[in-house]
Amino acid sequence: MEEYGGPDALRVLDVPEPQPGPGEVRIRVHAVAVNPTDTLLRAGAHAQRLADREPPYVPGMDAAGVIDQLGPDSDGRLAVGQRVVAVVVPTGPRGGTYADKIVVPAASVVPAPEDVAFTAASTLLMNALTARLALDELSLSAGDTLAVIGAAGALGGYVIQLAKADGLRVIADAKPADEKLVRELGADEVVERGDEVAQRIRELVPDGVPGLVDATLQGEKLFGALADGGRMTVFRGWSGGTERDIEVRPVRVSDFATDTARLDRLARQAEEGVLTLRVAEVFPAERAADAHRLLEAGGVRGRPVIDFS
């Protein structure tokens, strides 16, 4: 974008070809996933972080493609021609992933899951990393019960699947049309989503659950589902209070964009079928605005993808 605004602020522009420096790689991008962070950046929610930058501003945190150039002092882990996925901080000096060539820190790049199309692979890292961090913040043990709110969405689905891989019991919310999907993702119990979701969880677990992931920004409305001293993870920061010794743990995925070991483990779990990659619809770059409109309309199961191939 050259200025912030609605979906039509997105433009196809010619920009200088980026060159990788030390510790960086260049990726010929084939596909990028569209995430809520992209629409927020487009609308100006991160304008303060970009105040010292000249436009255009490039959204995008997820990319899948092929390495076409290595910066100096490569450590040998990655190679030209390799199929990879990357997670990117779009407010960083190189911008985001909505481009046919991007330069990113090598530490943010891992081999793509084998036998997975670029469109599907592009939906993996940002949301799966967010889900992994959310679960790590809760510090639950195998056999504990986790509640997942917003379970049918891209983030919620990864939370369910990673939680089951960790040996947790999962209670998830869903509207009736999504119940089958949420059960297929691995939820042990499903309650109807809505204003009474905390009460419905309490009916299944009278003392409350020890951990809850809020992918819907409901905040304090969900405290009723938590046990005394329970923990909840949130994704847009936290400025509210708490009660009954409940802890609220905000997750900032951008702080872990160079956590190579975590990223690679997630890619391998996708390769092994632990994680299900869901593409809602694929758009050419010229229709990026339509991809944003689809996401902002809500109810998307999986992620819209922009095709740069």
UniProtKB/TrEMBL annotation:
Residue stretches making up the Enoyl reductase (ER) domain: 5-306
Keyword Chaperone in annotation: no
Cited Gene3D superfamilies: Medium-chain alcohol dehydrogenases, catalytic domain, NAD(P)-binding Rossmann-like Domain
Keywords: NADP, Oxidoreductase
Protein name listed in UniProt: NADP-dependent oxidoreductase
Pfam families: ADH_N, ADH_zinc_N_2
Keyword NADP applies: yes
Domain of life: Bacteria
CDD domains named among the record's database cross-references: MDR_like_2 (cd05289)
InterPro entries according to UniProt: ADH-like_N, ER, GroES-like_sf, NAD(P)-bd_dom_sf
Organism: Streptomyces olivaceiscleroticus
